[in-house]
Design a protein that fits this description.
Rossmann fold; single chain; binds magnesium ion; globular; binds zinc ion
Length: 167
């Protein structure tokens, strides 16, 4: 079994001050590439798990989301960063198992990629990310304001990566 990092997208990988509805709205944080390289070099598979309820709300389509993620993957590929899969929940009002705080996306990825969730981490900037990670059995790292349930709290993804190296 392999170990993985589950990454929330908005507010972790990219700036989320404005909604990301088009590829040009996706602004990576200046430290994202370095942080992902550190984690990849530690032998973790890398997954993005993102709630994209804007699809069900009609703000953008699944095709729009695909163009955004294609652009994100193009950037990562050009930096030799292997992102192994992207999972998203398109739902907003529909009851589903995938929308965080439910752990559905993490569990499905772990089954598809033979991941040991107990050796894996969930990194997110919202409490729902932490709850999803805890329900999946992962160690959780909160970015930004502390959240009492999270195992660790840090300021950004680079700090999270350096923390994981030292655990
Ligand atoms: Mg977020
Ligand atoms: Zn869903």
């Amino acid at each position: 079994m392999k170990k993985a990092i589950f990454l929330d997208r908005d507010g972790v990988i990219n700036d989320n001050k404005k909604p990301v509805n088009k590829p040009k709205d996706l602004i990576l944080y200046p430290w994202t590439i370095e942080a992902l390289k550190i984690l990849s070099n530690q032998g973790f598979m890398l997954f993005v798990v993102t709630n994209q309820g804007g699809i069900e709300m009609g703000y953008f389509t699944e095709d729009d989301l695909k163009t955004i993620h294609d652009e994100m993957m193009r950037i990562f590929k050009s930096e030799d960063i292997p992102i192994d899969d992207i999972a998203y929940c398109p739902h907003f009002k529909t009851k589903c198992e995938c929308r965080k705080p439910s752990p559905g996306m993490l569990i499905k990825l772990s089954e598809n990629h033979d991941i040991d969730l107990k050796k894996s981490y969930m990194i997110g900037d919202r409490e729902m990310d932490i709850t999803a990670g805890l329900q999946a059995g992962c160690t959780t790292i909160k970015i930004g304001k502390p959240c009492k349930n999270a195992h660790y709290t840090v300021n950004n993804l680079l700090e999270a990566a350096k923390l994981i190296v030292n655990l």
